[in-house]
Amino acid sequence: MKISKKVALGVSAAVGLSLALAGCSSSTPSASGDGGGDPVKMCVLVSDATSSEALGFKAYYTDYIQSNFNVTFTYSDELADANAEKTAMEGFIANNCKAVISFASADRGQQIQMAEDAGIFYSVATGTLPEDQYEEFKDSPSYIGAIGPSLDIERQAGYDMAKYFVEEGDTTFAIFGGGIPYYIDMHIHRVAGMLTALAEEPSTTYGGQKEFGAILGKIMQDGTIKVADFSSDVYELSGYVEAWNFGDSAWQANLAGVVASQPDAILAAGTGFAVFGAAIAGTDIKIGDIDAYTEENKKAMEAGSLAYLAGKFTSINGPIFAATLSAVEGSPIRAEGDTALALEQGYWVATSVDQFTEYLAADTAENPVYDKESLEPFIGTDASYDEFAQFVSQYTFEDLVG
Amino acid sequence: MHDLTTTTRERDKKSAATSARRRDRLASLAPLAGLLVLAIAFVLVGSLRGVNMAYSVQTLVNQSVIIVIIATGAIFIFAMGSFDISLGASTLVAAMTGALAYNATSSIWVLLIVCVITAVVTSLISATLAAVFNLPVFVTTVAMLSVLGAVAVALVQTTGGAQIRIDSSFAREYDTLEMKFLVAGVFILLCFFLFNVTRLGRVEKLIGGNPVTAKLTGLSMKKTAIAAFAIAGLGVGLGAFLTVLRTPTLTTTTATDIGMNVLVAMVFGGMPISGGARTRIYAALIGGLSMALLNQTMTTLLSESSAGNGIAQIVRAILFLVVVWIAVAGHRGRLLPR
């Protein structure tokens, strides 16, 4: 086809104008909320956008919170590394986000610094800041804080899960280490907790160690779990898998080998059923997981594959949202010494289908336990830190549902 | 009778030549027109949506400068009709070695020099392997991609962790617009000089346009390839330097998208992938800026849509095809046999 000047410039102009026209068209209204004024624009950084847990958290924010509060949420794409996080933050700041809630942790220090430089608020959901970073940023007015499982809670979660299976009489275990090779602290602490529980048996050690601190140090040094370093007269560590390299044939072979070793239970640091569910179908192998209350995990428990779940519930990120919105509205909740929040929340543990079903039904995106009524007293009010901390600390099923 | 036929034929030839020249000019102007249109759209959309324009412009520079620098250097490779698939991996390894060197010395000059030397060395390895074994350069860069990936993993493991970090306050101090403009300005001017003023650019265009003819004229393909890869390596090294300053936490996934982004930037800038006479050294600058403008505009337009990322990817793909079509359609059937 011959190109004429008209055609070429016409195509360029059409492209440019279509962008402009799209910008002129009204965007999908996404906030009803209550109260007048423009909705508060909150932006969310995510490193996982597709898992059931992530989708559940997003549904709570975009479906329930957005409908009941005067806010809009803008989500990032799935962020793979620190550069992607920085690019996403730049987009958020350029598009006038008032606050960023972060589920991405490749470089939190960079995120907080960018928020501070831009004069917007920043908070961490379902996680914590390492001690040194908390000390660095705790006095920043931009940094609201973190609400989520502390590393001690992660350790305890792994410990309790392993203990459960030991008390059930299981002796052969495999471990899924999740993000251990990427030095994801929560996964490392969970697995260290598991090994510590097993090491309570007198003949059992990992790397010659029995205490949590020493086991943790060894895992941090190795960056992985070495099956050969597990020693016991009672228990057997029949296999170990880490990461999510589904496209790697060697990883797949290792996973198949772990299943073939026929452990009594696979202790998973996270996403256990997503990784092993298909592979263990038709076997008697059980999975213990530290994950979330989702329909997929419910089906797994109904099928008998999932025997233990320490899970985050869907609306667990309600309090950090409340603290963030309160800060945007000029009533930040600060800890003693005008420092950022560092509050713990733990998991709901289910070991039966009935329990799981009850937990799942009690907290949904449509009817969350952290609903508008429970969150409103802490948004834009003179609620004290102690009152808020007390509220956050009551996270168990019994506390919230009764 | 003879005169009438001859005159008509001559008129037809002149008309065809004029049309061809117009098409050439149009094809070369199209990327610039595209940049202009995208800039207008960026300003319009940003103004209508009330974005922070000052910050947006700064973000434009931040997000485009590394790609522009690396792509400008890569033009020397692509001009010859070669292809380097390992640019992203080279950038990563150069950034990692530079960061490790900085951590050992706390010197920005060491960071810069190590980044550049590492990148130039890896580039020259590709070129030298191709020269020694008489392989297409593309093949050696494919091998280097795998090797560099493994090197990156090994480098990360030297820290006992999954990341290589430098002091973020140091990085922030030097991650400034002034630094970016300085590095980019100096490198682009150097490349402009080398490509348009010295013989190198003309030789590369000839090699890219017709390697058979180039060989028969006695040009040294190997020496030219080595020079091209060295310059490209310099670009990668400078890009790695800025990458470390921009993102002081490096993992094995850092810079993985640079290879594709460089390619897209060059195409958006009107660079023919087969190289040759139509190669323009400024293609990377135009293309890099165009990409950044498009990304920013898409982000603003689609930020509240749950399908925003998908739509943005489709728009980019459509624009990519349009640009290539405009650039190629005017020259269809006029390529010399290779």
Number of domains of chain A: 2
Count of domains of chain B? 1
Secondary structure: number of strands of chain B: 2
- Poorly predicted regions of chain A are 20-35
Roughly what fraction of the amino acids of chain B lie in strands?
under 5%
Distance between the termini of chain B: 41 Å
Rg from Cα of chain B: 22 Å
CATH class of the largest domain in chain A: Alpha Beta
CATH class of chain B: Mainly Alpha
Report the largest inter-chain contact. Answer: A-B, 50 and 59 residues
Arithmetic mean pLDDT of chain B: 87
Low-confidence stretches of chain B: none
Overview of this protein structure:
The complex is a heterodimer of chains A (about 400) and B (about 350). Chain A has helices spanning about 5-25, 50-70, 80-95, 110-120, 130-135, 150-165, 185-200, 210-220, 250-260, 270-280, 295-305, 320-330, 355-360, 370-375, 385-395, 395-400; strands spanning about 40-45, 70-80, 100, 120-125, 145-150, 170-175, 205, 230, 235-240, 265-270, 285-290, 305-310, 340-345, 350. By secondary structure, chain A is α/β, with parallel strands linked by helices. Chain A folds into 2 domains: about 40-150 and about 315-345 and about 370-400, Rossmann fold; about 150-310, Rossmann fold, CATH 3.40.50.2300. In chain A, the strands form 3 sheets. Chain A has a 6-stranded parallel beta sheet with strand order 2-1-3-4-5-13, sandwiched between helices. Chain A has a 6-stranded mixed beta sheet with strand order 9-6-10-11-12-14, with helices on both faces. In chain A, strand 11, helix 11 (about 295-305) and strand 12 (about 305-310) form a beta-alpha-beta unit. The longest helix of chain A is centred in the N-terminal third of the chain and has 20 residues, at about 5-25. Chain A is globular. Mean pLDDT of chain A is about 90; it is low at about 20-35. Chain B is mainly α and about 350 residues long. Chain B has one domain: Orthogonal Bundle (ABC transporter involved in vitamin B12 uptake, BtuC), CATH 1.10.3470. Chain B contains 13 helices and 2 strands; from the N terminus they run αααααβαααααβααα. Chain B starts with a helix and ends in a 9-residue tail after the last helix. The mean pLDDT of chain B is about 85. Chains A and B meet through helix 1, strand 2, helix 3 and helix 4 of A and helix 1, helix 2, strand 2, helix 12 and helix 13 of B.
